[in-house]
Amino acid sequence: xxxxxxTIGIKNNLFSGIKILDCSRVFSWPFSTRxxxxxxxxxxxxxxxxxxxxxxxxxxxxxxxxxxxxxxNRWKKSINLNLKNEKDLDIFYKLIKEVxxxxxxxxxxxxxxxxxxxxxxxxxxxxxxxxxxNWYWENLNKRAYDVIVQAECGLASLNWESKPMKNxxxxxxxxxWLSLSLAISSLLFKREKTGLWDFVNVPMVAAWMQMLEQxxxxxxxxxxxxxxxxxxxxxxxxxxxxxxKDWEISIAIWNDKLWEIFTKNIVLELKNKYFFNxxxxxxxxxxxxxxxKEFSNYTSEELSEKLDExxxxxxxxxxxxxxxxxxxYRDNNYLKxxxxxxxxxxxxxxxxxxxKSFNIEEIKFSPxxxxx
Length: 372
Hints:
Structural class: alpha/beta
CATH class of the largest domain: Alpha Beta
Strand content: 15-25%
Number of helices: 16
Low-confidence stretches: 1-10
CATH architecture of the largest domain: 3-Layer(aba) Sandwich
């Protein structure tokens, strides 16, 4: 078993030698290119002073600078190019000749109008990996943002209590950038093995379709929309949040054997009852009342310790200050405190992949918009 401490001092050169020209903005796309930058790729961000990445203005701000922008664009370089200007477009084309990957999140009409579509750029650099993300495929001029796609792909209809509900975080954006990173890593591998390259597009709606799990399958069989379950799981019970004496706790009992252990040791009233998951699902509102009645005898901390002893998956429901106070997350580099010369001190998300031979070194901060 390798120890993370063994990798201290190892350079972040996993993608060393890879050069990326990045015309993307806001969250999903810059997050993906930052992953490559974290591990050694050279990423050049294209902006103009008049039309810059709008996330430079996103809260939280300090001294006129955005921490949101900072964490998504660390390590990167920036160049000021207005692609509507012929002189700047020529500079852009020269950069295209030098890079391995080009990234954009323009609508199809915009990239055609700017003369930066795949047909044009692949003639300038035949080995270019062209990386595009949008709402649909390359045939619909419609702007895509997380909240829009949550509605379009059906996610909001599943998170329902009294009305459709948006997920609290940009979950579609997040899964889209993970899909992008997987696609580009796959193409880099393909190019290394065969010398071949390609165009790749990730439609955000299609990416999220992969996350609808049984909902699409069930509906295609029954032709009925799934029950509006709020934040209940509609396949497993108990697989939810439950009130305790002082707060709430999450538990996941995904098989009948765990249910048997749970009821024999925690909720004796249900011992030898509702043994099969389908039966529990049909009676979940009754079971919820019985379980929470028993849980009211425990604090979340006490109950979590008892469940841990039984190897029943559980977690206290942390808020953001709980997370920031957790030394384990800091010690393992999930979170890192950054001292920025202008933004001052802040704890940010840091490493989410842990390689044996590569790690993120002390970071360079995000760039200003540089002059040509």
